[in-house]
Design the sequence.
């Protein structure tokens, strides 16, 4: 099985000033792993793809939105491993495919576009498209296997942190990080979906009973109008954050992550003794869907 080289995922120390406060934390740069499948996606996919190969499946099918990094990552990882990939995409097909979907096509993924009502019923889709020797991966890669693979992220850094902050979409990554934490550590999630009331429940479902006792918190006020939505202030913030830290962020996940973390620091959410790590989960390819010249990086 072909895997990714994750040696480039360095920890970077960040210190900058905002509103007369000094903010200091470490960033795990998972965005540096691979230019297309950066970040958390390889970790989420490795166990399901391993199982697919063990079960002698030659095709992987999955679900995602038009901006889904999970879709591109699945296409790329299947391509590396000689597997066929099929993506069921939420929403009607646009005449002009966006960068994310073009990349998925380049990696050989077969795309099927479904209107929102059909997309909602995953079981009906599986029956309507009986694919031989197919291993199905949930929308966005939500799964216990995915969370298990995410635990490997902890091999990449020297773990002395008290708070670990990550972005939350399906919660698979956050669940994997919770699974891997030691007793004195708390995971803090920044949710990028609007009105995700089942977020806590969906994370607990991926944890075993002992892990469910570990503390974690999810912050719901930094989604900027919802999943993959962006506002001019968010884009401005991404540029000024880059100016101050040299860290590029994507508008779907990590800009909201770092913005939310900054607000938590400014609100004195952390104590003096906290040692904070923020996990940069990648996703920078998504910025190619923004209009040209909106970002300085
Ligand atoms: C997919 C993704 C996430 C969210 O991961 P989940 O496991 O679905 O919560 C976070 N950051 C980036 C950059 C992503 O692409």
Sequence:
């Amino acid at each position: 099985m072909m895997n990714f080289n994750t040696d480039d995922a360095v920890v970077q120390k960040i210190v900058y000033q905002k509103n007369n406060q000094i903010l200091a934390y470490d960033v795990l740069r998972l965005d540096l792993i691979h230019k297309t499948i950066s970040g958390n996606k390889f970790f989420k996919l490795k166990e399901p793809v391993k199982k697919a190969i063990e079960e002698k499946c030659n095709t992987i099918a999955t679900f995602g939105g038009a901006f889904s990094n999970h879709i591109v990552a699945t296409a790329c990882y299947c391509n590396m491993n000689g597997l066929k990939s099929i993506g069921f995409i939420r929403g009607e097909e646009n005449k002009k495919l966006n960068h994310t979907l073009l990349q998925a096509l380049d990696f050989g993924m077969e795309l099927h576009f479904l209107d929102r009502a059909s997309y909602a019923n995953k079981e009906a889709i599986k029956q309507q498209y009986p694919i031989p020797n197919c291993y199905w991966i949930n929308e966005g890669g939500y799964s216990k296997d995915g969370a298990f693979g995410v635990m490997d992220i902890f091999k990449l850094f020297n773990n002395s942190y008290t708070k670990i902050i990550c972005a939350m979409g399906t919660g698979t990554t956050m669940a994997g990080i919770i699974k891997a934490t030691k007793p004195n550590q708390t995971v803090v999630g920044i949710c990028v979906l609007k009105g995700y009331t089942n977020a806590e429940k969906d994370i607990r479902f991926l944890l075993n009973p002992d892990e469910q006792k570990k503390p974690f918190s999810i912050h719901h006020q930094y989604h900027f109008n919802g999943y993959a939505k962006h506002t001019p202030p968010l884009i401005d913030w991404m540029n000024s954050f880059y100016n101050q830290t040299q860290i590029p962020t994507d508008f779907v996940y990590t800009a909201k992550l770092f913005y939310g973390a900054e607000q938590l620091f400014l609100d004195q959410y952390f104590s003096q003794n906290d040692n904070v790590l923020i996990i940069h989960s990648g996703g920078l390819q998504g910025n190619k869907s923004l209009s040209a010249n909106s970002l300085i990086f």
